[in-house]
Structure formats: structure tokens, C-alpha cells
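Reopening this one. Same input as before:
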Amino acid sequence: MNRKKGWIIAASLQVLFLLFIAGSYYSIDYVGKEIKIKTVPVDPRDILYGDYVTLSFDISTVPVSKWKGDRESLNSGQQTVFVVLEENKEGYYDVISVHPDKPDVDDQQVTLKGKAERFWGNTTDQIQIHYGLERYYVEENTGKALEQQASDMAVTIKIAPWGAQKITDLKPL
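Same output, byte for byte:
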């Protein structure tokens, strides 16, 4: 009898854990702050997953001058960073600063977590940041149409207070 109770408790905990994961993802829609970022789509296709659009955000390349940590730490490969964004006059979010640790921000700012590495361009040093949002899956056979529709697009992202983030919309400018 005790063995049966143990299996029921173990199975219940697993179900609750899965419900928590799903609930935390869907709760981003309700409690997340919505931001818009400019992007340029590229349309690849994956045999297993179907059509998706690779997004190149305006906020993915940042001058090293916005880095608020030790510059030598950027030379060691990918590093977890926290990017502070603030809305501009046009309604899109721009990078204010990049930090090695999560900073305190005011109500007009949001923080996105990403992986950064420094690269040297022709004119200035820059930081390349990957947010984990660069691949957006679309309905089958619509990726090419999105790519041809516009070279510049706006992506809408929701960011939850605990840092979770997801793309909610992709539209031409």
C-alpha cells in the first residue's frame, strides 16, 4: 500500500512540474512587458521543424562603449550579459547599457539576458549579443513570403518579471 502511494506521489509531482513549466511560459502573455525591436528576417528551412525566420536584431550589435564591466572579460569568448533597453521616440527599444550582472532598472527600462562576445570590426570594437530569440517559427510555406515582404520588420517581444521572454508578433514596418 505504501509503495502504491509513493508511485502516485511521484507521478503527481512530475505532472505538477510539467504544468508549472507550461504555466510559466503562457503567463508571460499576461504579466510580461511588451517591447518592439527592429529586425531583418532571413528565411531558412529546417527539414524537421519546418519554416522559420532567422532574425537579426538592431540590438544584437552594440558598441563596446556601452559595456559596464571589465573589458578583458569580453575577450574570453561567450559571456552571459544583461542588456538594458529603453524605448525611443519611435516606439522601439534601443540598448542603453550592457552589464555582466543583472542591474536595477527604472520603470521605463527593461532587461534582456543574452550571450555576448566581443568582435573587432573595420572601424570600432563591438559586442555581438545572442538573445535566444533569433529563430522564429512560422506557418509552413510562409517564411519566404515574410522575407520578400519587407527588408525591415518589427518584432514584438514579451518579457516576464522573472526574465523569461518570447516573441509574440512579427510584422513589416
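So the earlier flakiness isn't reproducible anymore. For the record, The CA atoms of residues 112 and 139 lie 27 Å apart.
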